[in-house]
Structure formats: structure tokens, C-alpha cells
Predict the 3D structure of the following.
Amino acid sequence: RVLFRSRFSWYKNAYAMLQANPFTGVGYGAFKKGFVPYASNPNIVTILKEDVYVAQLHNDPYQNFLELGIIGGGLIILIFSYIVFRCISILSSAQVKNKGSPNYLLLGTFLALIASITHSFVDFPMHLPSSAALFWFVTGLTILFINNTFDSNAIKLKQSFLTGSISIFIFAIFSWHNFDLYKRYLDASKLTYKATVSIIKE
């Protein structure tokens, strides 16, 4: 609960940071340094040193706007909005319903992309090498399937099977790595919470 309230306080405090640098942001990768004056202002956050040094905002789209400004953050939103729109348009089109394998592959990568984007609103997967690599890999496959969905000769069944097999293999590797990473992260969070409660009680 303490960490949950802290995140919302950071979200509110970060708005002042966006107002100070609305168009260009503080620079890509400069969030940790740029957020220091706003970490506990105006909403005070008191959990160890996290109220002074916040490395990630735990909301990647929001952090993109803070680092890249309205211009950069807006471009990212437009690009992925277009990808999502194209996926929905293709998947709902009657012309593709009888295409077979490529349609199912597009559906799979599209759902994986939506899951990754949803996750990024409550955490910072785009700043973790394994999660970011998996995200861009899935994004690339999605764009590939979008561009070739209407071309019956572009994706053969064997190519689709090979691509799907490689995708599943890579997905399994990254999934296991992420599972291990987040398990350690959750264990560390529990220890941090217990330490915080002990300090408050004392």
C-alpha cells in the first residue's frame, strides 16, 4: 500500500515536471536526474530514499512524455496507435478471415503487443533489456504480418511455421528470464516493505 500510494504521488508530482519542459522534455534517459526536485514536491513521499532518488516512474508512456516532451511522446503514441488501428482493421476484415496461418500469427503478435503496452502503464518494462528486446521483437513481427497479410505469395505456410517456431522459442527464453527477474524483484520489494515498516515503528 505504501508503494502504491507513492507511485500516485510521483505521477502527480511529475505533472509539474512536464509543465516545466512541455515540448522537448528533460532529455531521453534523464528522468532520474530531472525528477529530483519534484520527487517529493508538492506531494511528500516518505519511503526510505525513494522520495529523493526515483530511477523510474513505473509508467513508461508517462515517462516518455517527461523525457521527450509532447513532441516526442506524441510521435510515439501516433506510431503505436497506427499499428493498433491497422491490426484491428486487418483482423476484422472479411478479406483476411480465410487466409489461414498469417492471420493467426498477426492476432498472436497483436495481443502480445497489447499486453506489453498495458504492462508499461504500471511498471517500466521498456527500461529492462529483456522486456524491451521482447517488445521490439514482437513489434517487428507485427509490422511484418501487417505488411504481408494481403499478399498471398508473401508468406508461405512453411515460412509462417518457421517464423512462429522461432517466435515461440524466443518468447519462452525471455518469459523465463522475466519470470526470474520479477520474482527477485517481488522478493526484494517485500523485504523493502518490511524494512520500511520496521523503521516507521521505531
